[in-house]
Amino acid sequence: MKNFYQPVPTLLALSLTALMSVPAYAVSSGNVLTDGTNVAYRDSRVVFDEIQHSFLVDNSQPNTAPTASQPQSLADVASSPAWRKLLLLDKKGKPTAKDPHFLLAGGDTRAELDAIIKAIDERDDKVLCAFPARTHYVAEQLGLVLDDSGCDEFHAWAKQYDARALSLTFADEHPNSLGSAFSHVMIKADTEQSLASGRDDDAFAINYTVARDKADGEAEASTRSLVGGYAGVMEFYDYDEKRDVYLLDDERDIWEYRLNLTTAEVAQIMRHVWETKDLKRPYFFTHDNCASEILRLIDVVRGSELREAVGKVVVPNEVARVLTDKGLVRDTKYLPSKSSTAQAVQNGTQGVVTSPSNPAHASPTHRIGLSVGYDDSYHGTRTGDNDGTTFGLSLRSAYHDVLDRPVGVRQYLDVEMLSLDVRYDDRLKVDKATVFSTRSYNPTNTAKAHNGMAWGQHARLMQVMDGSDGDNDDHMVFDVRLEKGKSWTLGQGELGTGRLADTLCYVFGGYGGQVGHINKGYRVGAGVNVGCIHHASDKVRVMGELALPVWYHHNQGETRSTYVQPALNVGVQYDISPTYALRLTGKAERGRDDTHEQVALAVLRYF
Q1: Rg of the chain over CA atoms, in angstroms?
Q2: Which of 396, 187, 190 is nearest to 295 (CA)?
Q3: Is 173 in the same domain as 212?
Q4: Residues 21, 124: Cα–Cα separation, whole Å
Q5: φ, ψ for residue 75 (rounded to 5)?
């Protein structure tokens, strides 16, 4: 999600401390909680409205948090979702942060509340200054007087950076980085100056990312990020500098989604950022990442369950989609990258560059499929009562293959991770279990050629046919393969956009190995894959690929030690809706003495 080559940051800040009629707060002046303004964003203009300083009710998304004029009971506050979110507890009350200093009373919500009330009553600056979001929330809910005037470090931080409005910034999938293959999201924080001037250099970025060991290579770093081998860190940048890294250096399009949050809610989010910015939490590429952190921050002020709504695996375009669906997006802005702008010119565009592929309109990335098909071979037996009918179940956690609906993702995106395919023919078996499989095509005749080299990396468990002898049973192996090659588009991209043409063809040369229950227990190989992908319409995609691998294993018997095992794969998908599709696939693979043929029709559900 984040490009691993980003620097580790410095400071950020927020404006904090409110002057309210009930209760009366001891506050410092000159920030968002004391200047008497609320920011509303419409049609790229900024409107400042006089308001009272309280949690405002948003017409498009009701704020269920009670106001200070309605003091709550201790039990209500202790059991509230917002309080649990502030403590970084999951639905079951389990701490999600391992830092022992973050919790004052072991994570019991009532005991934590009592500790904060005691700190407010005794003006315990150690607690008040470490947890301004908690103390503000408790004081507001219970009608307590809060005096945090002794928190000089926090107030200096808040004064330096005065966030008035927040936007979700979505940078699309990086074409050449495994660490950013699933895109990336961060927060754009607008100040009073940036809202008034419209200039990004007056705004700043809040970025939750992985603290990667710079000595680790891409593959090792990606693997460690999958298993929580790195800590997550909160970084703060000048927004325009971070924006230009994505647009110019990485050549990734950006979408900005102005969030439908009040200035009071923004201030509370920033207080919580102060509380959590130095925590050493494990970063997981799949679920505790840049995307989940943004949803969690919004949950802090809305008392909602946005983080839970997206499932176990959280990817950035899911955040854009969920926030849009929940009415939390006030305005959307598209920023084309350097390569998209150049491609638009190549397409004949002379005016403004647009994009029809808003990530908020993408299909969900989780997918389940049920299939029925025909297979002419069952573990070496071709006789008996079975007529060749097969049944399949597929589960995919993320992300996208070349037949999936392409709206809201980079064109010809081919990244799959943590998927499982189970099949029943004359017995139940795992057909394929993918750890990760990705290809980046970089078509050489386009402005999006990047380095002009197509490449692929694959690691998966899969059933294979052993072509070394006549016993062509299915065998489970662990397959690893690396590829490099070239690709080209055929035709013209859409006028007015930086989109590529609807047809892409490619050739890959690759090498790898398989270990498992096959002849000699292993085989190594190299070969060529040639194929094409065609977007026939907005709802139909087709593909075909011919693989010509040459396999070798040491052998002194009658079976072959070196052999070619060609295979042809074809597929077509029709989208019924953004969440349902039909997919027809077929495969023919040559063994030693025969050809193995398969065909299957699947109903896919995206969720």
Answers
A1: 27
A2: 187
A3: yes
A4: 24
A5: -65, -40
In a domain, 74, yes or no: yes
pLDDT digits (tens, 9 = 90+) for 100-157: 789 999 999 999 999 999 999 999 999 999 999 999 999 999 999 999 999 999 999 9
Within a domain: 437: yes
Smallest CA-to-CA distance from 419 within 286, 530, 320 is with 286
Residues 414, 322, single domain; the answer is no
Structure tokens at 23: 């209760």
Which of 180-184, 286-290, 471-475, 483-487 is modeled with the greatest confidence?
483-487
Asked if the model's pLDDT at residue 47 lies above 80, the reply is no
338-361: pLDDT as tens digits: 999 999 999 999 999 999 999 999
451 lies in which domain range? 361-606
Confirm whether 168 is domain-assigned.
Answer: yes
Q: What is the CATH number of the domain that holds 460?
A: 2.40.160.40
Q: Examine the domain organization and report whether 331 and 365 are in the same domain.
A: no
Q: Alpha-carbon distance 376 to 591, whole Å?
A: 13
User: Distance between CA 526 and CA 512 in Å, rounded?
Assistant: 7
Two tokens, residue 200: 């990004």
Closest CA to 359 of 399, 394, 397, 305: 399
Token pair, residue 525, equals: 């190989």
Count of domains forming the chain: 2
| 168 and 309 share one domain | yes
Pairing assessment for the beta strands 254-259 and 230-238 based on DSSP bridges: unpaired
Phi and psi dihedrals of 179, rounded to 5?
Answer: -65, -20
Position of tokens 């007529």? Answer: 387
- Same-domain check for residues 316 and 431: no
Are both 180 and 226 inside the same structural domain?
A: yes
Asked whether residue 516 is domain-assigned, the answer is yes
The pLDDT score that the predictor gives to residue 323 is: 94
* DSSP 8-state code for residue 302: H
Tell me if the pTM is above 0.85: no
DSSP codes joined into one string, 31-67: STTTS-EEEEEETTEEEEEE--SS-PPPSSS---SPP
Q: Are residues 568 and 429 in the same domain?
A: yes
Q: At what angle do helices 263-276 and 132-142 cross, to 10 degrees?
A: 140
Same domain, 324 and 365: no
Of the residues 335, 353, 384, the one at which a domain ends: 335
Q: DSSP per residue over 385-439, as a string?
A: S--SEEEEEEEEEEEE-TTS--TTS-TT-EEEEEEEEEEESSSEEEEEEEEEEEE
